[in-house]
Amino acid sequence: MLLRTALLSVLALGMVGCAAQPRTQFYDLTAASEPATQRLPPSVSLGIGPVTLPELLDQPGVVSRKGGTVVNVATYHIWAGELEPAFTRV
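^ that's the sequence the OP posted. Answer follows.
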């Protein structure tokens, strides 16, 4: 009887722990709604590339730098797709 009560208590605590998780939020990158205010003359072209991201960012969670060498990876704030293709697209 004591074993059954202990197992039910552990099961109940596990279920409460799962229910208390925050809702996952998804993010996507989009271009700025306003174009740059300075225009280049038609005879001038501008190219940027190749664009690569650090390996540190190659994970689903949103990564932010807290300062120095400390980073924060948000477990419940993740990219809706792959970050590098979205970044180079934008």
